[in-house]
Amino acid sequence: MHPSRSLPRSQRASVLIVALLLCTIIGISLVSYYRLAASALTGATRSFLSLSNINLAEIGLEHAMACFYDQSTGTPSGTAWNGWNAYGTTGKQKKIAIADPAPNCPAEVRVYVNNFNGSSGTPVIVAQATISPPRAAPIHKFVEVTLRNRGLWTNGIVARDSITGDSNLVVDSWQSNTTSPASLYSTTARKAGGPIGVIAAGSRALAVGDNPTIYGAVKTGGGSVSKSGAAKLSNVVGGSGWNAALETHDFAFTFPTITVPTPSRVNLISGSLTISRTFPNGTTDQPASDGKYYYDFQGYNVDYASKTMTVSDRCVFLMTAHAAFTNSFTTSSSATYTYGNSTATLEIYTSGSMHFDSGASWFANGVPARCMIYMTASSGSQFHTGGGGTWNACIYGPNTAFNLDSGGTFNGSVIMKSCTLRGGVKFHYDESLGSLGSGSGVAVARWKELQSADERAVYSAPLNF
């Protein structure tokens, strides 16, 4: 055997140097890879937390929206906003405790509400969500939501107890404000946006009858929709079949309280009106401070047979001395109600009933928004029509029975205790009514993330608590 030979010292040193260099390179690579991985993890974590922050801000918005809802259902403001701090006379503040969205990442949400009761301007909610990751700058998200009052006339037909159709009921829609001046209903403007709903949950609370054609949607508070024959429900004009996807069964509606105006000046009606007349009478009638002409009927009624009433300015009829079962309006023999110009409007507040015989024409030369009828009786009142005729109006009567007889045409919107629609009735909902009136609660008008320093600075003071 030959003894092993060791390499020369110089060669051994070279190998050692190469090994050290390789180790150094591997070490640097490992460190670089670790830093890259750590950086990627940090970036992914911040991205995740940033997205989570939007959700946290939404939690703050929902807390405020819940208070607005409670307030809209009649809960006193002090109770609805319990747990919130006051900021000035119109603002509210609240800090909401939030569970950590990730380990060692505490979070909080601050919410500021301006004009919380809606009496001093447009309500606005601002939520600031903050997450503080370890060894990194805090992550902030600011969301501003502008609210609007929910419109009263957002459905074609709303009933508390029941909607009952007879045969060949037609429901559809159009939008009057797409032209100037606003346009009346026509088949060329026909749309499929006619929603009808009943809040009762009974199995026959919504019965649309035989061979109905509904271009829109049907809603109940829980019960099924009763129908027969070749029933149509479609969101397309001309569509066929019953589209069950357009049925919903969780419909809810809060009926706001009617407030009868108390004007600065009133024109008195001294007897039942049985002759043709124009309102206002330019020689004697006087407007109130708001420019409207108010008429107190003092328990007298309108009893028309083949007569004509013309409204030529902004008029308001106060008919609140009638018993629920007596008629504030009685019409027979094709009486006509009409506008004398394109700017005239009519509001009616009545505690009684309204009865129209066949062939009446109720302001058929103006869009529904120009005639608002508020039926104030607590029970027992009716709005009843005979066969045929045309009505252009919005009627609010949460304790009133609405009966539209065979062949009648109604353009507008109704909110009633019950609705009965006889054979061949045509109901055309004006979609432009959706933003009118003061309904229950608020709706979101605009959602905006505040990203710039200037946008956020506007709320720096009310969010600094």
Explain what this protein looks like in three dimensions:
The chain is α/β, with parallel strands linked by helices and 465 residues long. The protein has 3 helices and 30 strands. Strands 1-2-3-4-5-30 form a 6-stranded antiparallel beta sheet. Strand 2 (91-98) and strand 3 (107-114) form a beta hairpin. The mean pLDDT is 90.
Query: What is the alpha-carbon Rg in Å?
Result: 34 Å
Shape category:
elongated
Largest sheet: spatial strand order = 1-2-3-4-5-30
Number of helices: 3
How much of the sequence lies in strands comes to 35-45%
Largest pleated sheet? 6 strands, antiparallel
Give the N-terminus to C-terminus distance in angstroms: 90 Å
Number of strands: 30
Nearest-integer average pLDDT:
90
Low-confidence stretches: none
Oligomer: single chain
Helices and strands: which structural class?
alpha/beta
* Helix fraction bin: 10-25%
Feature tags:
465 residues; six-stranded parallel barrel; alpha/beta; six-stranded antiparallel sheet; 3 helices
Write the layout of secondary structure elements.
Elements: H1 9-72, H2 77-80, E1 85-87, E2 91-98, E3 107-114, E4 124-131, E5 139-149, E6 157-165, E7 170-174, E8 194-198, E9 206-210, E10 213-220, E11 225-228, E12 232-234, E13 247-248, E14 267-268, E15 277-279, E16 293-296, E17 302-305, E18 308-311, E19 314-319, E20 327-332, E21 336-339, E22 345-350, E23 353-356, E24 361-362, E25 371-375, E26 381-385, E27 390-404, E28 409-421, E29 426-430, E30 442-450, H3 453-457
Parallel strand pairs: 6-8, 6-9, 6-28, 7-10, 7-29, 8-10, 9-11, 10-12, 10-13, 14-16, 15-18, 16-19, 17-20, 18-21, 19-22, 20-23, 21-24, 22-25, 23-26, 24-27, 25-27, 26-27, 27-28, 28-29
Antiparallel strand pairs: 1-2, 2-3, 3-4, 4-5, 5-30
